[in-house]
Amino acid sequence: MKKVVIVSGGSRGIGQAIVEDLLASNCIVATFSRSESDEIKAMRAADPNEEKFYWQAIDIQESEAVKDFVFTVFKRYGRIDGLVNNTGVNLDSLISMTSDEEIDSVLSINLRSVFQLTRMVSRLMLTKNDGSIINISSIIGGARGFKGASVYGATKAALVGFSKSLARELGNKNIRANSILPGFIETKMTHGITGPRRDQIVRRTPLGRLGVVDDLTGVIRFLLSDESRFITGQSLAVDGGLTC
């Protein structure tokens, strides 16, 4: 039976790569994002009957719209086997220079929306006594501190604790929860890391390079699969050894 997986924020970057990899692995994938990227258009065109791929334009902070999306996926495909909480925003700002509005925005997107989506999906997973939840954290906050990333890092650290507590809450129903801590991955978000700063990161990374999205997708596929059925409550850094 094909696994049904919800991926938040699957229109570009890491989320897009996750969606494409899961589709290639014969999963049914549902995702949402605020806007339809060219990649989403191509995936929808390749599956006009929405047999394997389903997308809606939704802002993750619109909880009722997200709730409707989750129940539509469940009704359409009959189950939800996996959830990848990928949506998140960065904030590069010293805490002394950060406004209340910026703090509220990051907390809302990186934490509150994750809690709400996980609550919705886990309730449906409980009807099947099976599921895998993956929270995309970061080495920033999740493994170490970084200057100018106190608020962002706090939210990513919180996802690690969230995953561990979820593992305790849901484990007796065969629902697993883990977090992935990506290092510096080649995406639009890291395009601004150039010159000496980039060189320094590469020098400090034992594998001698920045990561690419394909370094993450296989790990996610594994944690969603039955091959990882005895792994829960764990935090896995995918960072080329930067934090070792």
Q: What features would you describe in this structure?
A:
By secondary structure, this protein is α/β, with parallel strands linked by helices. 44% of the residues lie in helices and 16% in strands. The chain contains 8 helices and 7 strands; from the N terminus they run βαβαβαβαβααβααβ. The chain has helices at residues 13-24, 38-46, 63-77, 100-125, 139-142, 150-170, 195-204, 214-224, and strands at residues 4-8, 28-33, 53-57, 82-85, 131-136, 175-182, 235-238. It has a 7-stranded parallel sheet, sandwiched between helices. Helix 1 links the parallel strand 1 (4-8) and strand 2 (28-33). The protein starts with a strand and ends in a 6-residue tail after the last strand. The mean pLDDT is 95.
Which key terms come to mind for this protein?
244 residues, alpha/beta, seven-stranded parallel sheet, single chain
Main β sheet profile: 7 strands, parallel
Count of beta strands:
7
Termini distance? 38 Å
Mean pLDDT figure:
95
Order of strands in the sheet with the most strands? 3-2-1-4-5-6-7
Structural class: alpha/beta
Order of helices and strands: EHEHEHEHEHHEHHE
Radius of gyration, in Å, reads: 17 Å
Strand content: 15-25%
Fraction of residues in helix: 40-55%
- The outline comes out as globular
Number of helical runs? 8
Low-pLDDT stretches:
none
